[in-house]
Amino acid sequence: MRRVTLTQFLIEQQRAGRIGPDLRLLIEVVARAVKAISVNVSKGALAGVLGEAGTDNVQGEAQKKLDVIANEILLQANEWGGHLAAMASEEVEEVHHIPFDYPKGGFLLLFDPLDGSSNIDVNISVGTIFSVLRCPDTGCEPDEKAFLQPGREQVAAGYALYGPSTLLILTVGNGVHGFTLDREMGSFVYTHPFMTVPVDTQEYAVNASNARYWEPPVQRYVGELQEGKRGPRGKDFNMRWVASMVADVHRILTRGGIFMYPMDEKCRNKGGKLRLMYEANPMAMIVEQAGGKATTGRERILDVQPEKLHQRVPVILGSANEVDLVTRYHLES
Ligand code: AHG
Ligand code: MN
Ligand code: MN
Predict the structure, then answer these.
(1) Whose Cα sits closest to atom 11 in ligand 1?
(2) Taking residues 48-74, what's their average pLDDT?
(3) How far is CA 320 from the centre of its chain?
(4) Which of 119, 123, 199, 229 has its CA 20 to 30 A from that of 164?
C-alpha cells in the first residue's frame, strides 16, 4: 500500500492551488511541534512533566507543567520560519510578537497548546488546537485587533490528539483530513481522508454535573435525550464526557454525536467556558467542513465577531440535526 505522508499531502494541496508555500510551511512547523509535544506527553512521569507548574495563566487557571512545555514548544517552533506575523496562545495574555531577528510573514497563528489539562496527570487523552488567520495588512506590528476576526475567516484549523496513537486532524477549507503519527518513522501518515460527521446520532457529550446551572433550552433538550425511548425523541441516547474537548470532538468526527459546553449560571459572567479564538472557532471550522454544525445556541460560532483575544463562548457542535434542534430550543425560548 502506498503511504502518503503529511508532507506529500500538503505539496499536493499546494499544487492544486488550495494553499500557498507559506501556509504549507506553517502547517509543517505546527506538525513538527506536535511531534515534540507528543514525545513529552507520552514520557509522562519518566520525563518529570506531570503535575502543576506552580503558576497561573491569563485566565487565572493553575498551569500544569505540560501546559507550559507545550506552549514553549509551539512558540519557539513557529518564531523563526518567516511565515507568521504574530501568535496568540491560551497561556499568554498578550499577543506574542515575532522576535526582531526573524523575518515576518502574513499569517496569524492561535493555539490552545494543551487542551484537557485536568486529564494529564490521570493519563487520559489530551490535545492541541490551532487556528490560522490572515494578518490584515496594517503595515505595523499586529496587535490584538488584528486577531479579532470571525472564525469564518480562518484559512486553516486543526487539532492534535495525544491518545493511544497521536493524530493530527486538519482542514484548509477542503474537507477534514486525518494523519496518524508513525512514531518509528517520525512522520504523519494520511490515514483518515475526508472525515464526516453523520447528521444523526444517539450519543451526546456534556458535563451533566452543571445541569442545575444550565439555561431552560439546554435543560429541555438534555431532559428529552434522557427520557429515551419513552420520551418525545422515541430512542435511547448514550452519554460520553472525556473532559478533553479534543477527544470529545474527535469521537464525534469518527462516529457522530453532539458536544455541548453551553452557557450556565457559573460561567455567565465570563461569557461561557470555552475560548472562542483557539477552541470554539477551529473546532467549528473542522466540524462544519465535516458536514456538521456549530452554534452558541443562538448564533453560528463562525459568525461571532470577537471582541477580545481570550473571549469565551457557549459551544454546541456536532451532528447537524441535533445541533439544529437544540439551537431551535434556544431561539424559541
Ligand atoms: P483546557 O485544558 O485547555 O483549559 O480546556 C479544558 C476544556 C475542554 O477541553 C473540556 O471540554 C472542558 O474544559 C472540560 O470542562 P469540565 O472540567 O467542566 O468538564
Ligand atoms: Mn482547552
Ligand atoms: Mn489548554
Answers:
(1) 245
(2) 93
(3) 18
(4) 199
